[in-house]
Amino acid sequence: MKHKEKKKKKRGNALGIWFFTLFFRVAGLNGAYFLLYLVAFYYLLFDLQSLQFAKVYLTKRFKDLNFFSIKVKSYLLFVQLGKQLIDRYVSLIKPGFFDFELKGADSFSLMCNDSQGFILLTSHVGSWQTAMQGFKDIKKEVYLLKLGEENLSLKDKLKVDPDSAKIKSISPKQFLGGIVEVINVLKKGAIVSMMGDRSYGADCLDVDFFNGEASFPYSAFHIAAVEKCKIVVLTCAKVSSRKYLLNLENSITVEYQGRKNKKEQLRKYLRQYTNILENFLEEYPYQCFIFDNIWKDDKL
Questions:
Q1: CA-based Rg of the chain, rounded to a whole angstrom?
Q2: Interatomic CA distance for residues 86 and 29, integer angstroms
Q3: CA-CA distances (angstroms) from residue 215 to 73, 100, 256?
Q4: pTM
Q5: How many domains are contained in the chain?
Q6: Alpha helices (H) in 132-246, listed in sequence order
Q7: In this predicted model, what pLDDT tens digit does every residue of 223-251 receive, in sequence order?
Q8: Are residues 76 and 174 in the same domain?
Q9: Do 226 and 255 belong to one domain?
Q10: In the 8-state DSSP scheme, what is residue 150?
Q11: In this structure, is residue 8 part of a structural domain?
Q12: Residue 32 structural domain
């Protein structure tokens, strides 16, 4: 199915980002977090769209919620999102500021040393942007299939769209959604990072996710089957103020069994992916930043 995204307000402006930057430089990370607690409360009171999206996820993730508990959990969700945006900025101006514990590093290193390209599937859970800082030192080139940040304040101040010698971007706005270029760089042995949980207008399949039918794009899985390359599912959890747990041990091998019903065959692989997301969010429930209604049975 085609998933039509609801237009979202741009959040964050140059003045607000300047205040966070000032607090960090004067009072350190905890100082920036202190300001965040106040800003998150503002969003809790006035950002109705974010509250609607948060409510959809929270009512799927938790049981027996009431008006008060939804507000509390929405606030915790906004705080976690804000912390990881701040961390994203700090990791750029102070490399090495955060500690990373790696899971699956040995197998991932072997894949990086191999001539075969592969897909790195990222999600709006945890902080994949902060995790990407570590990919500048690997041997393979990395390409991000992603839309550019439309909020110029975030783009300029937080440097959310960096291109470097090792990390480049592929725009999904080009011919066939950038798939041709994705296939070409995979054939050259590169890593292609793709979002697995937001469609951006691409075709989707409905799979079970937290006991509801949710729509997820399947193009990464189709490409992996055609090109016979692996998918590595990246998750990156913030586990303390200065520590992240980067998990690269979850991989998916996609294969078509015959030529019939190829789209339907991909459903079981998508379910493997949503299982990984569910396991992550069972442990870190306030690090889900999809902020889109992907469930079919909920209307905003």
A1: 19
A2: 8
A3: 24, 31, 21
A4: 0.89
A5: 2
A6: 152-157, 179-187, 219-227
A7: 999 999 999 999 999 999 999 999 999 99
A8: no
A9: yes
A10: S
A11: no
A12: 14-92
